[in-house]
Write a structure and sequence with these properties.
The chain is of the alpha+beta class. The chain has eight helices and seven strands; from the N terminus they run αααβααββαββααββ. This is histidine kinase. One of its GO terms (cellular component) is plasma membrane.
């Protein structure tokens, strides 16, 4: 009986000691986790006493690592969104400022009627351009959310490229640049959505205008081995920071694009819309020449 009481007392004492050690470890781990969280350090929790479950410590360390990764990702995206909003403001302000400048010119009563009409047409084009930019941002948000379904129809690719290029004529001319189209075909029909296709071409020409140098060359050729048409937009570009693998990311910008005011959405829109239309898109950068290559099925 005495032996049993002694054994029970020893067992109880061991249990109490173990509880004390576990509580101390829990307190130590709690303080350690708090310090790691507050300091933002890369330290991990250790099982110093050996009484805590290694599986529990491992799971806590996994949570710490995931929390750090999530925080870094959040901060990166927050910075990218802030940069994008700044650049969107710049993109929208550019045609608006230009239109306001032409309005100031019209306030001069000495301007001949013919020149006044020409200035009004220019203002209209600038405001149409502004409206298209706004539509592009809203359209992109709807597309990526899956809200809109787009019907396809037969579209003359050559005519649509010429139409879009015409909207950029003044902007390219102002910089002493041209848009040069090369095609053996006068008409190439594809099954597509006119609105989305215009947005694709608009963004590619706008991207070249902002960041490219020299003339924008557009080559249209029919593929020999399959019923597809290949469209290549290419221009000179001197920028060693270009990362082709990120060029279609939503918020991707390089130092050169930040200085010129680029939303980071242009090529993302082009990629998203091209794939929705069943086309293919890729980019290349060789010998200071940047190219966007599109493929569409011929109807």
């Amino acid at each position: 009986m005495i032996v049993a009481i002694i054994a029970l007392s020893i067992l109880l004492l061991f249990a109490v000691s173990l509880i004390i050690v576990l509580r101390r470890d829990m307190r130590r781990i709690s303080l350690k986790a708090k310090k790691i969280r507050e300091d933002g350090s890369n330290n991990l929790i250790r099982n110093e006493s050996g009484f805590m479950s290694n599986e529990l410590i491992e799971e806590m360390n996994i949570l710490l690592k995931e929390s750090r990764t999530g925080k870094i990702y959040y901060e990166q995206k927050r910075h990218e969104v802030e940069q994008m909003m700044t650049n969107i403001s710049h993109d929208l302000r550019t045609p608006l400022t230009s239109a306001l400048g032409y309005i100031d010119i019209l306030k001069n009563e000495d301007i001949p009627w013919e020149e006044r009409v020409e200035e009004l047409w220019t203002i209209e084009r600038k405001l149409i351009r502004l409206n298209e930019l706004i539509d592009s941002f809203f359209l992109y948000s709807k597309v990526i959310s899956g809200e809109n379904k787009f019907e396809k129809e037969k579209v003359n690719l050559i005519a649509l490229l010429e139409e879009t290029a015409g909207l950029f004529y003044d902007d390219y001319s102002a910089k002493g640049r041209d848009i040069i189209m090369n095609s053996k075909e006068k008409r190439v029909n594809i099954l597509s959505n006119r609105e989305l296709l215009i947005r694709v071409f608009d963004n590619l020409m706008g991207n070249s205008l902002k960041h490219g140098e020299g003339s924008l060359v557009i080559d249209i050729t029919k593929c020999e081995d399959e019923p597809m048409v290949k469209v290549v937009f290419s221009n000179e570009l001197h920028d060693d920071d270009v990362q082709i693998d990120k060029i279609f990311d939503e918020f991707y910008t390089t130092d050169i694009s930040r200085t010129k005011g680029h939303t980071g959405l242009g090529l993302a829109i082009a990629k998203q819309f091209t794939e929705i239309l069943g086309g293919k898109i890729k980019a290349s950068y060789n010998d200071n020449r940047f190219s966007i290559i599109l493929f569409y099925s011929i109807s």
